[in-house]
């Protein structure tokens, strides 16, 4: 099929949101062009096998985007972005968490109709039935010791398949045995019988939107122009979506003019409000060799309150690893070890906000990313992470781990004050791999809102967004499930609109 073709809908990006959205529209009989910049994941054993995710992260299917060096922070962070069908679900760790209902209270209040708890819950349930979520509870001795230690310090075992409070539990992963259940595997490949109305184009890079005044009629790509009879939907992620908008003249006018880009619509919120889960780790040296599990080696996840009275739901997530997490501690001189344990921690509802801006008016150029970790005015994010370090020390001091723990390597036993711990955290903080919020959803009178509750782009016809960039506030858990939910809700909004119009 020629790339210069017309479809009912053109979906840009075949990741978590785009794959679900494209399939839903095509199942309803609409013709859909689903455009992916990278190749197909089919036949790629390293993608299919969850145990090889580190290989994919380091390989050619992943593009690493550096950040703008922060003042007094960690400049080494790089965001891995997928260049393959399935997007981030083809290279992530398949962790599947349904966010607590409290995460969406603000969505309904600030954004409007369509984001009620019942509608969101129904979407998650449909996705879980279709994907099939497996619990990982096969453990070796050190994994069991980590979970017992959590129990000793007051955290009961909880079931992550439903609502829960503070506690520790087993991972839930979107996999079957060793094989990942990515958005592409579940929604785009055989044997799920994708309809003939779904046309998938891989190795096609979107360069700019095709605008007629303030109406989007299609998208220009490096292979031709795709035209949409009805709408174009951006699903290119927290970096790719604002980039394409700005290259097309939709975004903060002053920034666009600095690159001599013709301003089609001054939309200040594009590229603002970058959210993430800032991540840090506490590492200890093991007193003896630590056995590994093949497909997934972490023991479980601990959710806890560490900053009293500030959140109704746990404010920190701690992944308990029978292996050291040294990617950020080793480069600044902290000791390393072949055998160790760690708590990999993220702030659940981080309040710091960064930004994404163009570095050049060129589709080939990377964007400028400023995550601005620990920058919130109240110091909330850093307070939570300092509390996480202290909780990790309580965990490693529990009797269940005494035969396993030799010494703390990072930040080290001599690091005791809040100021010293804070300095350690600032020097080693990195992304939790969950960038979001750069085209936030909000009410029409919000100066920062980019899309409304139906995910239409403000002031632009024929264009919606359905990916992590629309998050008005951070969800408390890993975001892949939420991105798929957004794709499903967007499709439902669109199908409802066409049914009413008919």
Chart the SSEs and their pairings.
Elements lengths: L4 E8 L3 H12 L4 E4 L9 H4 L4 H5 L4 E5 L11 E5 L22 H7 L5 H15 L2 E3 L4 H12 L14 E3 L1 E3 L1 E2 L2 E2 L2 H5 L10 E4 L4 E7 L2 E7 L2 E11 L2 H11 L2 E2 L1 H5 L7 E2 L12 E8 L13 E5 L11 E6 L18 E8 L7 E3 L10 E3 L9 H18 L7 E6 L7 H11 L34 E3 L14 H22 L1
Parallel strand pairs: 1-2, 1-13, 2-10, 13-23, 14-15
Antiparallel strand pairs: 3-4, 5-7, 6-17, 8-9, 11-12, 12-13, 16-19, 16-22, 17-18, 18-19, 20-21
Helix pairs in contact: 1-12, 5-12, 10-11
Tally of helical segments: 12
CATH architecture of the largest domain: 3-Layer(bba) Sandwich
- Strand % is 15-25%
Structural class: alpha+beta
Q: How many separate structural domains?
A: 2
CATH class of the largest domain: Alpha Beta
| Oligomer designation | single chain
Span between termini:
29 Å
Q: Mean pLDDT score, rounded?
A: 95
Low-confidence stretches: none
According to CATH, the fold-level topology of the largest domain is FAD/NAD(P)-binding domain
How many E strands?
23
The H-level CATH homologous superfamily of the largest domain, spelled out, is: FAD/NAD(P)-binding domain
Biggest sheet architecture: 7 strands, mixed
Principal-axis shape equals globular
């Amino acid at each position: 099929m020629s790339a210069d073709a017309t479809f009912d809908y053109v979906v840009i990006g075949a990741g978590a949101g785009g794959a679900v959205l494209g399939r839903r529209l095509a199942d309803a009989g609409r013709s859909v062009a689903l455009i992916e910049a990278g190749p197909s994941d089919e036949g790629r054993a390293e993608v299919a096998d969850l145990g090889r995710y580190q290989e994919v992260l380091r390989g050619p299917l992943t593009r690493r985007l550096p950040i703008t060096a922060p003042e007094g922070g960690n400049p080494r962070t790089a965001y891995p972005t997928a260049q393959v069908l399935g997007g981030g679900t083809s290279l992530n760790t398949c962790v599947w968490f349904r966010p607590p209902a409290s995460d969406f209270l603000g969505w309904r209040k600030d954004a409007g109709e369509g984001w009620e708890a019942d509608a969101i819950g129904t979407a998650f349930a449909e996705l879980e039935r279709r994907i099939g979520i497996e619990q990982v509870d096969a453990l070796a001795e050190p994994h069991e010791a980590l979970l017992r230690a959590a129990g000793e310090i007051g955290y009961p075992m909880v079931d992550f398949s439903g609502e829960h409070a503070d506690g520790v539990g087993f991972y839930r992963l979107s996999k079957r045995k060793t094989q990942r259940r990515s958005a592409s595997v579940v929604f785009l490949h055989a044997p799920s019988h994708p309809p003939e109305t779904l046309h998938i184009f891989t190795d096609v890079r979107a360069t700019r939107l095709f605008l007629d005044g303030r109406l989007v009629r299609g998208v220009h790509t490096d292979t031709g122009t795709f035209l949409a009879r009805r709408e174009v939907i951006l699903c290119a992620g927290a970096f790719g979506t604002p980039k394409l908008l700005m290259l097309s003249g939709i975004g903060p006018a002053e920034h666009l003019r600095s690159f001599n880009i013709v301003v089609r619509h001054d939309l200040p919120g594009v590229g603002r409000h970058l959210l993430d889960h800032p991540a840090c780790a506490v590492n200890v040296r093991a007193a003896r060799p630590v056995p590994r599990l093949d497909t997934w080696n972490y023991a479980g996840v601990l959710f806890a309150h560490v900053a009293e009275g500030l959140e109704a739901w746990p404010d920190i997530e701690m992944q308990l690893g029978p292996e050291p997490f040294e990617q950020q501690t080793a480069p600044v001189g902290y000791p390393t070890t072949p055998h160790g344990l760690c708590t990999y921690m993220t702030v659940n509802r981080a309040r710091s906000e960064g930004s994404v801006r163009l570095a050049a008016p060129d589709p080939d150029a990377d964007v400028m990313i400023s995550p601005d970790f620990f920058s919130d005015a109240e110091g909330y994010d850093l307070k939570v992470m300092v509390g996480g370090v202290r909780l990790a020390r309580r965990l490693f001091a529990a009797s269940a781990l005494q035969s396993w723990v030799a010494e703390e390597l990072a930040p080290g036993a001599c690091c005791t004050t809040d100021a010293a711990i804070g300095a350690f955290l600032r020097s080693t903080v990195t992304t939790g791999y969950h960038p979001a919020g750069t085209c936030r959803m909000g009410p029409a009178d919000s100066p920062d809102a980019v899309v409304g509750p139906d995910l239409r782009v403000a002031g632009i016809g024929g264009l919606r967004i359905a990916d992590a960039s629309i998050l008005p506030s951070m969800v408390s858990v890993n975001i892949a499930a939420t991105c798929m939910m957004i794709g499903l809700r967007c499709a439902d909004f669109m199908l409802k609109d066409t049914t009413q119009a008919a």
